[in-house]
Amino acid sequence: MVQSKNKIKTAKAKSGPIHKKEAKESKSEQLIYKEELWQGPLPPPHYLEGYERIQKGLANRLVTDFEKQGNHRRIIEKTIVSSRIKQANRGQNWAGILSLVAIVGGIILILFDKKITGLAIIIVDITTLVGVFLYKDLKELYRRRLKHKEKNQSNKS
User: Fold this and answer.
1) Which of these, 33, 34, 36, lies nearest to 10 by C-alpha position?
2) Each residue's pLDDT tens digit in the chain (157 positions)?
3) Nearest CA to 47 among 5, 70, 58?
4) Domain range summary for the chain, segments of one domain joined by +
């Protein structure tokens, strides 16, 4: 996005006339103020042309560096996402193993006449598993509703 601001001011010359003939001629100065702003990693094309005039190939190097940085950023993001998926999978695997151990332990306790303790371990374990999945689903539902609400508000504006 490029924004331009141009201001033109006209002012009379500060030095007064020395002769009468000069008094009839009006002298004025024109001050031009120009400001250009842009957002984004690359300047507008006319600036790239200016860089190219300064040094041959400079604009091409700027664009190439921008492309390399974009590729680098995408590789890093892909690596981060992949790592988070692997970490989540490991966590789920360990939680499943621990849960299975707890249930098997509860069954063993029931078989050795520790029915209340074994049943309590099994109930707590299953309740925890159900709670984790319900919490995840409720959190996702809340996120979707919030996103839908924000989308509706932005469409009304």
Assistant:
1) 33
2) 445 444 444 444 444 344 444 445 556 778 888 888 888 888 888 888 998 999 999 999 999 999 999 999 999 999 999 999 999 999 999 999 999 999 999 999 999 999 999 999 999 999 998 998 888 888 888 999 988 888 888 777 6
3) 58
4) 70-156
